[in-house]
Design brief:
Layout: H1 2-5, H2 11-18, H3 22-26, E1 42-54, E2 61-75, E3 78-87, E4 91-102, E5 105-109, E6 119-127, E7 132-140, E8 144-154
Antiparallel strand pairs: 1-2, 1-8, 2-3, 3-4, 4-5, 5-6, 6-7, 7-8
């Protein structure tokens, strides 16, 4: 299932992430430093709509709606996110991501190392005075790619 979650910046981002280049792809040169606003530290809950694509011959496509929680730690513009998804078939799946936030937008990614479930990159924007997050993501493994749309509220 975690591969079902594998959290869209597009296929290019997934390939760069799988190759360990997420930070360099997402941290393009230009503009001032991220301003760290708003503060999104804390607990978040919501849902993820996932479209799972198996990449094998005759592979399946499956649509899922799954509960998601985030535990976000923020220090200035730096984010650390522990993402947990609950799949009724496979149980709890967790990812550890790091990223940046600024001007109401954020990105976060796994480093691709040691992630049993594959690589994950997500991006989103903060709404409702810092109480809602909406965004997209893409997850990739050796045999699956998943497109994700998520909506979360602060606890």
């Amino acid at each position: 299932m975690a591969k079902k979650l594998c959290l869209g910046l597009g296929l290019l981002a997934a390939l760069a992430l799988a190759a360990g280049g997420a930070a360099s792809l997402l941290a393009q040169e230009g503009g001032d430093e991220a301003d760290g606003l708003p503060d999104i530290g804390g607990a978040w809950t919501g849902t993820a709509k996932v479209v799972l694509y198996e990449m094998s011959t005759g592979g399946r496509k499956e649509k899922l709606k799954l509960p998601v929680t985030l535990a976000v730690t923020q220090a200035g513009a730096d984010l650390t996110i522990d993402l947990t998804v609950t799949d009724p078939e496979e149980g709890t799946i967790s990812f550890h991501l790091t990223g940046k936030i600024g001007n109401g937008h954020f990105w976060a990614a796994t480093d691709g190392e040691g992630e049993e479930e594959g690589a994950l990159v997500m991006t989103g924007h903060v709404k409702a005075k810092g109480k809602k997050i909406k965004g997209t993501g893409i997850a990739a493994s050796d045999n699956e790619v998943d497109e994700i749309r998520f909506s979360l509220k602060k606890k």
